[in-house]
Fold this sequence. Notes:
The protein is mainly α. It is built from 8 helices and no strands.
Amino acid sequence: xxxxxxxxxxxxxxxxxxxxxxxxxxxxxxxxxxxxxxxxxxxxxxxxxxxxxxxxxxxxxxxxxxxxxxxxxxxxxxxxxxxxxxxxxxxxxxxxxxxxxxxxxxxxxxxxxxxxxxxxxxxxxxxxxxxxxxxxxxxxxxxxxx
Length: 146
């Protein structure tokens, strides 16, 4: 089955377009953001407790991420940095950049293709690991813990 055949229905009508998957992803992310924006994670339990924190008593890199997203959606950048600096600085901006890139491409603007170099991915993983360690031990732990 070819790629074109996979995208056509029994009558030959086109089922998916080139932007269907990104649009569905954007819609899912938007609905998740709307839910977090409307339900305060500081006063209600939006997500299950972190298993790593519950069992071992240490913070994972994602601990505080939902609260950071909530703070950002309400304009509190300092509060978001306090809840989870990694999410605030290294996950949300690239996600917004990717969304803007996709929107520009979907309306027909000529946007360049980009690839992430291997060294950047390893650097990202190194920062991820360093954040995980530093938020649990050492002099920065009180400032990096949610």
